[in-house]
Amino acid sequence: MSAELPFANPAAATPAPDAAAAVLTIDLAAVAENRRRLAALAPNGRCAAVVKADGYGLGAQMVAGALAADGCRDFFVAVADEAFALRPTLPDDARLYVLGGLIGPGAAAAYAAAGIRPVLNDLGEIADWAALAARLGRSLPAAIHIDTGMRRLGLGPDALEILAIKAAELLRGVDVALWVSHLACAEDPADPLNAAQLTDFRAALARLPKAPASLANSSGVFLGAAWRFDLLRPGVALYGVNPTPGRDNPMLPTVRVDARVLQVRNVDSPMTVGYGAAHRVGRPSRIATVAAGYADGYLRSAGGRGVVCFNGAAAPVVGRVSMDLLTVDVGGLPDGAVKPGDWAQIIGPDIPVDAVAERAGTIGYEILTSLGRRYRRVYGPLGGGNGL
Ligand SMILES: *Cc1c(COP(=O)(O)O)cnc(C)c1O
Question: Is 375 an active-site residue?
Answer without folding.
Answer: no
